[in-house]
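Following the same procedure, backbone shapes were mapped to integers, yielding the entry below.
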Amino acid sequence: MGVSASASYRDAYARLSRIAAELESGEADLDRVLPLLEEARAAYAECRSRIEAVRGVLSGDWGQGDAEAPEGDDGEEGDEEDDDDAF
């Protein structure tokens, strides 16, 4: 799966680069701009999805303890201190 996911990201990024170059050149036909923007939005969504998946893995969000570890480190200590100070 890693190879196809990587290829998907690379393909989407290549599409974004191609579209950006075409739009920046100023030579894109006006009738082609809307389809290009729609294609760019889809490619961007693919790239973002892959990046978010990698971020999740790197931050330790593997599925079972994904909500416990980050909230336990960030939320519990800060909340306890805030609650104690408030009362």
The two ends are 52 Å apart (CA to CA). The CA atoms of residues 30 and 48 lie 27 Å apart.
